[in-house]
Amino acid sequence: MIELAIGVAVAGFQFLYRIFHSKHWVLLPNAICRNHVGNEPGCRHFHSGKFPTGQRDNSESVVTKMKTAYDLYLGSFNRGRRWKYNTLLSVFTFTMFSALGRGSVEPLFQLGEPFCWSSEKLGQFTAARSLMQQICGMGLIKVFQKFMTDESIAIMGCISFTIGYVIEGLASSDALIYTVPFVSACGLLTVPMCRALLSKLTRSDQQGAVFAVIATMETLVNLCGSLLSIEIYVETLNLYSGLYKKYSNKTTPLVKR
Q1: Is the pLDDT reported for residue 188 higher than 80?
Q2: CB 105 within 8 A of CB 229
Q3: Which of 138, 181, 110 is nearest to 1 (CA)?
């Protein structure tokens, strides 16, 4: 539900931006965002969101919790199961890199030959991709779960992303590249499925440690994804401009629990 809510916000903002931009109301979406930022302190005042003090688990120190997170992925006590954690974490990291790192490179790729897109086309493509991946794709999770296992859905997401990037990297016409949002619509399903599978593997008292590592990897990808993507794009530009897109998503097979 979190990913779906984010998708609605991102895709909705992009569509509204294109509408308001065409009517020269470009400042209105920015004003809405600033209004939300300004309302945040008030929301915190009326609803602090703090977990009740009496229900907090303070039996372990921060250092102990960090050690628990380390042991789950690298510790000897979890031997025989570590490969499952590390495989899922690797799939999650590569998927997040391909999803977040593309934002700084994809416009450069589409602005160059043979597309030479305008800002209007860039906005339309980005909005369509967000609509398909973050709303349509995420909205179908419950439907897929009725017929498929979580592992199968995660694998399907990896395949969807990979095919979409290969098509985009090899595309030579607008008609072909516009198929990418539809082909890769299920790509982001890998993210919530990896979280769900990691949660199923872990005892209830270790859930916090697992998701702390996930949040750490997500933060690192947010910080370094764009930089690494640009470096890869620059280094491969003379060889083939679509090489980055073709190999940006590494499909790592998931193994049944």
Answers
A1: yes
A2: yes
A3: 138
